[in-house]
């Protein structure tokens, strides 16, 4: 039986989007092999939930990735994946090549003639615009030089235009991304398919487990963020807002669950110190997935405070839909996809992105009128469970793509 070959420059099965797509396909009778880098203690060949994994190279590190990024930028090919795909096509009969994200687009396209049917490009985000944001707080001079020279957004925007035209289909993560490709590059809308980062409905089972967690004190009015740290996440906005919140909300505490680079974490801690709120901001660190659901469920407010720019306005986080199932109050920034979903279902509260004062005002208002806002959590829950904002519905678009149906 022929395979769908997915390539991803990341760890599998840790990549949530790639895992959900791959598992949806195998659950519907497809054969899927994931080609990804091999870290030191990884198995080269492994099968997880019926998805086959072929890991290439050896002891993949951040330094090695940085070197491959430079080569990729200059030559439009990633040597690790190029030679890895040569081995892949010798071992597997490939009907479809599914390339995850823009950096591997050039490498994947070189194998178009070896694919039996079609090649698809899956854009997780607006990569050129993301480059403007990701590295803002980097302190290392060499890394800053490397990024400015080789991770130039203008260069990658040209690559995006080029490969969106060359691939048979382009999978976008949100409607806003699809509209952006049509507006900026005049890409044929028939070539573009939206498959968003929705969550499976059975995520609610994690809430039912009622796992113990001692992170949030019952006496605290808890404001919680779960996810990665970075300049685009808007955590600095929430931290600044705490200086006003603590004046009106007794025992208010901001919990930041997750991690970022050393530079990012140092920057956020510096913001907390400068605004004299360090004792109200708890940097919890990484927590395993099974604890995250309990944290989402037990906090007073879950926040997604993304700044609004051409990166964040063209992607959407999985945690939006996870929080909507938690029946805990949701506060999001006015970043376009977040605002669209929340306002469509009256599923939470929206504050003006990158506005610490408005963030604080919304938190204080929630505190003062908690029962009123709590009622919105039922709207959020119903949107996911009963109104199609879930992976079971969304994944059908992906399945249709591979069954050659009109999407």
Short summary:
This protein has 407 residues and is α/β, with parallel strands linked by helices.
The main sheet comes to:
8 strands, mixed
Kindly give the count of domains: 2
Provide the CATH top-level class of the largest domain: Alpha Beta
Q: In angstroms, what is the radius of gyration?
A: 22 Å
Strand content: 15-25%
Written overview of the protein:
This protein has 407 residues and is an alpha/beta fold. It has two domains: 3-198 and 390-402, Rossmann fold; 201-385, Glycogen Phosphorylase B (Rossmann fold, 3-Layer(aba) Sandwich). It is 46% helix and 17% strand. Helix 1 (16-27) crosses helix 18 (391-402), helix 5 packs antiparallel against helix 7 (153-166) and helix 10 (235-248) packs across helix 15. The mean pLDDT is 93.
Set out the fold topology.
Layout: E1 3-7, H1 16-27, E2 32-37, E3 45-48, E4 51-56, H2 62-75, H3 79-91, E5 94-100, H4 105-109, E6 118-123, H5 127-134, H6 141-150, H7 153-166, E7 169-172, H8 175-185, E8 192-194, H9 204-208, E9 221-226, H10 235-248, E10 252-257, H11 262-274, E11 281-285, H12 289-298, E12 301-304, H13 318-326, E13 329-333, H14 336-345, E14 349-351, H15 356-368, H16 370-374, H17 376-385, H18 391-402
Parallel strand pairs: 1-2, 1-5, 2-4, 5-6, 6-7, 7-8, 9-10, 9-12, 10-11, 12-13, 13-14
Antiparallel strand pairs: 3-4
Helix pairs in contact: 1-18, 5-7, 10-15, 13-17
């Amino acid at each position: 039986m022929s395979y769908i070959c997915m390539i991803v420059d990341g760890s599998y099965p840790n990549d949530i989007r790639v895992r959900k797509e791959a598992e949806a396909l195998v659950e519907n009778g497809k054969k899927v092999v994931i080609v990804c880098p091999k870290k030191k203690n990884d198995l080269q060949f492994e099968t997880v939930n019926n998805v086959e994994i072929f890991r290439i190279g050896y002891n993949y590190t951040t330094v090695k990735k940085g070197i491959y990024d430079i080569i990729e930028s200059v030559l439009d090919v990633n040597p690790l994946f190029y030679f890895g795909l040569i081995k892949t096509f010798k071992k597997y009969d490939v009907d479809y090549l599914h390339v995850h994200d823009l950096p591997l687009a050039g490498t994947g396209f070189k194998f178009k003639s070896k694919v039996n049917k079609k090649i698809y490009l899956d854009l997780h985000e607006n990569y050129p615009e993301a480059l403007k944001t990701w590295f803002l707080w980097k302190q290392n001079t060499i890394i800053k030089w490397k990024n400015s020279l080789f991770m130039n957004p203008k260069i990658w925007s040209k690559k995006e235009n080029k490969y969106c035209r060359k691939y048979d289909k382009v999978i976008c993560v949100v409607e806003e991304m699809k509209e952006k490709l049509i507006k900026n590059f005049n890409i044929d809308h028939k070539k573009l398919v939206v498959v968003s980062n929705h969550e499976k409905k059975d995520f609610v089972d994690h809430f039912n487990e009622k796992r113990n967690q001692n992170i949030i004190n019952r006496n605290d009015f808890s404001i919680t963020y779960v996810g990665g740290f970075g300049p685009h996440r808007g955590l600095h906005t929430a931290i600044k807002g705490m200086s006003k919140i603590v004046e009106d909300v007794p025992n208010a505490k901001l919990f930041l669950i997750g991690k970022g680079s050393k530079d990012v974490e140092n920057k956020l801690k510096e913001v907390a110190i400068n605004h004299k709120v360090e004792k109200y901001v708890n940097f919890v660190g990484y927590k395993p997935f099974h604890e995250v659901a309990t944290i989402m469920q037990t906090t007073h407010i879950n926040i997604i405070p993304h700044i609004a720019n051409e990166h964040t306005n063209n992607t959407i986080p999985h945690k939006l839909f996870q929080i909507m199932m938690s029946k805990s109050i949701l506060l999001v920034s006015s970043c376009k996809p977040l605002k669209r979903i929340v306002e469509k279902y009256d599923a939470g509260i929206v504050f003006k992105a990158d506005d610490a004062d408005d963030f604080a005002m919304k938190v204080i208002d929630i505190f003062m009128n908690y029962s009123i806002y709590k009622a919105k959590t039922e709207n959020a829950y119903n949107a996911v469970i009963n109104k199609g904002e879930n992976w079971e519905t969304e994944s059908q678009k992906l399945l249709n793509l591979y069954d050659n149906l009109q999407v």
